[in-house]
Each structure stands twice: as C-alpha cells, then as structure tokens.
Amino acid sequence: MKKALKKTYTTFKEHTPKNAIIKLLIAFAFYLDSNQTYNKIKRFFWRLMNDDNFIYKRFFDAFMFILVLISVGILLYDVKYEVHPFFEDFDYYFITSVFLIEYIIRVWVYNDIHKIIIQEYEESTFLGRNFSLSKVFKEVIAKKWEYIRTPFAIIDFLAILPGYRPLRIFRIFVIFRLFKLIRYVRSINTFIEVLANKKFELFILLLAVTFVTFIGGAVIYVFEAHDNPKIHTLFDAIYWALITISTVGYGDITPVTPEGRVLTMVLIIFGIGFISFATSIIATAFTEKLEELKSERVVREAKSMENIYLICGFSNEAEILCEKFKKENQDFIVVDLDEDRVKRAVFRGYIAMRGDVTDKEFLKKLNFDNISKIFILTNDDIANAFMILSLRFLSKEIIALANDERNISKFQKAGATYVVVPTTVTALLMAEYIGRPITFEVIDAILTEKKNAVIDEIIVIENSILDGKLIGEIDFDKYKLILFGVLKKNASTLLNETFKLSNKHFYFNPPFDLKLEAGDVIVVMGYNVSVNYFKYLVERSSV
Q1: pTM for the whole structure
Q2: Distance (Å, whole) CA 57 – CA 481
Q3: Distance between CA 422 and CA 405 in Å, rounded?
Q4: How many angstroms from the chain centroid is the CA of residue 22?
C-alpha cells in the first residue's frame, strides 16, 4: 500500500506543472476531491436545495416561503406608507442576506470546480501537454453561466435587487420575490411540470390563437377604422380581437358595422374551440400525471412505515389477507401490474400502486429495507416463480401462492419460505365439513372471527411473567385461554409430539415440565378480549 501511494505521489510530482500557483491549485483540487467532510457538507446543501425527499428541505422551504411573504409585505407597504426602521433593517440586513446566501449556495452546488481542474490535469498528463489554466477558467465560467442563465436563477438574482436601497427603481423587482415561491411550493411546481410536458401542444395552440387574433384584428381594422370611434390604431383592433376570442368581452370596444358583427360571431366560435382545446390538453396532462403523483404519495407513505408487508398481486386470496392485516393494524402495500386491480385495492382503502416488483429501482423507491415479509399472490404460477427468483436477493421471508401442487417444490427451490396451495386447503376444509360439520363450523368461526374467537401467537418476552416458567405453572384457565402449542426457539430434544419448523420445534399439547424461554412463541385460542389482555400482561410485566 505504501509503495502504491509513493508511486502515485512520484507520478503526480513528475507531471505537475512547474508554476507554483497551478501546483497549488491542482493539489487543492485533489484535497477537496478526497475530503469526506467537504463532500458531505456539499452533498447536504445540494439535497437541501434540490432533493424534495430530504426532510430538512421541507423546513427550509417553509422558512423561505415565510421570508418571501414578509419581504413582499414590507416592500409593498413602503410604497405609500413609512415603514418602521426595524422592518427596513430586517428586510435589508436579514432577508436580503438570506436570499443572497441562498443564491451563492445554489451556484456553488450546481457543479464541482475541483473536478474540472482534476480532469484537465489528467488530460494534460495523458496527452503530454501543458496544463491549461485558461481552459479551466473558461469551462468553470461556462458551467456556472449555464446555471446563472436558467429562469429560476434569474428570478433569484432579481429577487435580491429590491434590497438595494439607494436605487428605489429596483423596488419593481419585488415581483420576482413572489416568483421565488414557485421553488418552495410543490403544487405550483407540479402544475408547471404538467404544462411543460404539453409544451408542444400548447405552443401549437398559441400559434393558432396568435394567427386568428392578428387576422381578426386586421379585418376589423379594415371594416371599422373609419366608422368606429373606439378603434384608432391596429393595436386597438388586435386588442379587441383577443378580448373577443377569449370570450371575456369587456364591452369597451364593440363593432358598429354589419361586417364587424359577423366577424365577432366567427371569432367567438373560434374562441370557444380554442378554450375547449386548451382545456382538453391540460386535462389530459393532469390525467397522465395523476398516476405518477399517486405513486409518489405511496412511496412517501412507505418511507414513513416500518415492518412493511409487501403483497404482490391483488388476487381473491390477497383481498382476504389484506382485510385481516387491516384489522390487525399491520402496515402493508399492494403492488400489481393490472390497473383495474390496483383501483379495486385503493377503493377498499388499501395503500396500493401499479408497479413491477421485479424491477430493483422500483423496490428502492419503496425502501425495501423496511419490508419484513413478501406475499406473492397472483393466480399465475409462472409470474409467481419469476417474482420469487427476482425477490430472493432481499433475504426476506417469502410466502407464495401455488395454483398447482406440482409447483410447490419449484417455488421452494426458487427461494420461497412457505408455499400455500389454495385448492388443497379448500379440499381439506370441504372434507372436514362433510365428515365433521360441527368441527368445520368451529374452524370457520375461528378463522373468520365470527364469534370473536381467535388463534393468536404470544411471544415470550425476557423478564416477563412467562420467561422461565414451566407450562404447568401457567394457569391458562384463569385467563380464559386454551393452549395449542409452543414454538421453541432452542429445543434440545425432539419429542414424538413435535414437528420441525425451519430450525425451531413446535410442541403440540406441550408437557407440563416444558420450560419457556425468551423468544419462544406460545399459540393460544380464546376470545379477542382474553388474548389481548394476556398480551398486555406479558408486555407490562417485562418493563
């Protein structure tokens, strides 16, 4: 390692230009490039200015929004009244300074000057030519100018000028402080983005309106220039044509000749058509944007959740599962490629979005670190198998639906933790109903919670009333519960009454001398109120 560093330093020393200033500039550029503190600070300010998902940007936007409103209020009040010196100083020294600092920071974070210097150094070294300081200077100016000439940067610059008191004419630029609000209000940004996506259609519409307005103005000028006392110039005629096309109709200019009135009717018809066309363009743009906005809302909600269940495919089985999770207040997200199924899930009040779970970028948006379980529940076994293969990299518990028993082993080899075959379960329940109808009614009541009877799991918490206790020492009758079994986290012996579940062992009707330990799970049946009360006692006793 030391040899490699020494070699790099020697190479740098040999190829660095002799000019001391250039040497210092290159060394400083490499220092900034490798300085983690500097890069973290710059990254922080970049996110503060540009990343809408950055939590601190929300506070910054709110702060700037309030400052803009205060500054505009002060400057508008100052037009006719005398402003208190405190507010003048607050606007001049504080608000204007904040706007100036924001402008400088935005120019700073737009690009990295030191990377331009390093690139020029590497190119000059590779090509064996002298380091060109003028080339670096030109490229730095060009990059910064690229940002400075953007509409938002121009607005930021003009918004600083009203703070310059000696020239009161600069007060007219107060209007640009209002334009700054566009930066800090997401809805305004969304509206502008929607219009920008339809800029070609809107441009064509603008050309058509301009053409018809000019033609209409020219014709009315020819017809009424000598007869109408309110039309003196071509500008008056074009003004009238635009007001007529927009269907506003102020009434300050009205045609007096029959030809002019006919032209008015024609322009009104054109105006209605233009308005309808513009409305349809904007409505279409918002409809297209709506799905993206819904997805963004779901992504924001997902980032605020923990221990999320990801349900892939809103099948009939998924509907039943979602209803259960909703009752249990379990966070979950439904993802499906079919738009109709997504709408059905949203209609039922679930968080759902259209997307492809096999796309890693899509999963990153959902913050897959917070996903604890994945349920793959489409009715297509091929699609289910592909999703299992694509999601196994998450190392999460995957519960998959197999519509054909022959695919169970394939799903397990693909990476599914558990595989459920609904046809097999249905057949077993039917057989139970035919052979033991009363037993079936009991099972049905428990699964559907018709009688408020549930089967639930209770985790043995360390230092709780269950930790270290023998089964025989716990009076389940007292709590109106029935013990089904115990899932032991660490089982030293395997009895005949147990079966293996992953690396754990489940004991049906466990013996009285079975000792419970922290991390074990007991399965009980009882009324909702009994189970919830017992859980409360266990949790409270561990504190």
Answers
A1: 0.51
A2: 52
A3: 9
A4: 45
Among 15-24, 256-265, 304-313, the least confident range: 15-24
- Give 512's contacts (C-beta < 8 A, 6+ positions apart): 470, 471, 472
Helix axes 186-197, 258-303, angle to 10 degrees: 120
List of long-range contacts for 9-12, beta carbons under 8 Å, 24+ apart: none
Write the DSSP symbol of residue 132.
-
Judge contact between 525 and 454, C-beta under 8 A. Answer: yes
Asked if residues 351 and 366 have their Cβ atoms less than 8 Å apart, the reply is: no
Closest by CA position to 410, among listed 392, 429, 385:
385
Question: Of 373, 419, 414, 376, nearest to 396 (Cα)?
Answer: 373
Q: Which amino acid is at 144?
A: K
Position 499 confidence tier, pLDDT thresholds 50, 70, 90: very low
Angle at 495 between CA 490 and CA 497, to 5 degrees: 110
CA distance 179 to 307: 42
Distance between CA 160 and CA 156 in Å, rounded? 7
69-78 contact pairs (CB < 8 A, 24+): 70/95, 71/95, 71/96, 71/162, 71/174, 71/177, 72/174, 72/177, 72/178, 75/162, 75/171, 75/174, 75/177, 76/174, 78/171
Answer for the pair 473, 516: CB distance below 8 angstroms, yes or no: no
Task: Report pLDDT digits (tens) over 171-216.
Answer: 566 666 777 777 766 666 677 777 777 888 888 888 999 999 999 8
410: left (phi over 0), alpha (psi -120 to 50) or beta: alpha
DSSP-assigned beta bridge partners for residue 419 = 400
| Sign, CA torsion 174/175/178/182 | negative
Question: 395 in helix, strand or coil?
Answer: coil
Domains assigned to the chain: 15-184 (no CATH), 199-288 (1.10.287.70), 306-420 (3.40.50.720), 452-541 (3.30.70.1450)
Vertex 468, ends 464 and 469: CA angle to 5°? 90
Percent of the chain's residues with pLDDT above 90: 5
485 phi and psi angles, rounded to 5 deg: 180, 180
| CA atoms within a 13 Å half-sphere pointing along the CA-CB vector of 32 | 15
| Inter-residue contact 335 to 355 (CB < 8 Å) | yes
Distance of CA 419 to the CA centre of its chain: 32
**Could you give the angle at the alpha carbon of 315 between the alpha carbons of 314 and 321, nearest 5°?**
80
Quick one: average pLDDT of 118-142? 86
Task: Find the helix or strand (DSSP H, E) in which 128 lies.
Answer: none
